[in-house]
Amino acid sequence: MALVSFFDRQPPDDPFALLADAVERQGYAIQENFLSAHQVHDLLQVLHRLRSEEDALQPAGVGRGEAFQTNEFVRKDAIHWLDGTVPATQDFLAQMRLLQQTMNRRLFMGLFDYEAHFALYPPGGFYKKHLDAFQGQTNRRLSTVLYLNFDWQPQDGGALRCYAPDDPQQILFDLAPQAGTLVVFESERFWHEVLPAQRPRFSIAGWFRINSSTRHRVDPPLWQ
Ligand SMILES: O=C(O)CCC(=O)C(=O)O
Ligand SMILES: [Fe+2]
Q: Taking every annotated instance into account, which residue ranges of this chain make up the domain Fe2OG dioxygenase (predicted)?
């Protein structure tokens, strides 16, 4: 009888560990079917409810705090920040918390909290080439985008176009915003853009941040 010790066994395919490995290797990771169709449906329901409420979705802007401004030439989408008050978004945030723990354990990233918003790009919506964080200017370290669009077709446009970190003119990949797909990338290294979408495009964009507390300002984490 063959004796299989605990240590001989392959570890199960932990999706968070796979994502962390890919980020360590190449700075980004793509995971199809990260969420089940069921979970995506639940999140879409939340988003559709928000759409029916006046003012729940706001035109997205660029810049933070006093530097915030909307600019339709840069991005054309509407957003709503997740607050985790309904089960669907709680579940999603719990998964992001697991991802945060895995990243910190395996890559020592020191990720401290996570902020995320629903985004709705109307037909014709886009987001021009940008970095989510400029080195040294922000505490955003890792970007995530989860897509919520069933049956996305090539002619629907709306791909996430990501550029090579060592040559921001060179396209690294185009990713279709297919329901359940999660992409994760280092915020300071990857220029990216959203190509014009031909039909409404739904997603949750989020950022893990490191603690930027100073003696004068304590940055509270979203989860405690
Ligand atoms: O939705 C996407 O594919 C990317 C969105 C994005 O780049 C952002 O919100 O910063
Ligand atoms: Fe971005």
A: 107-210
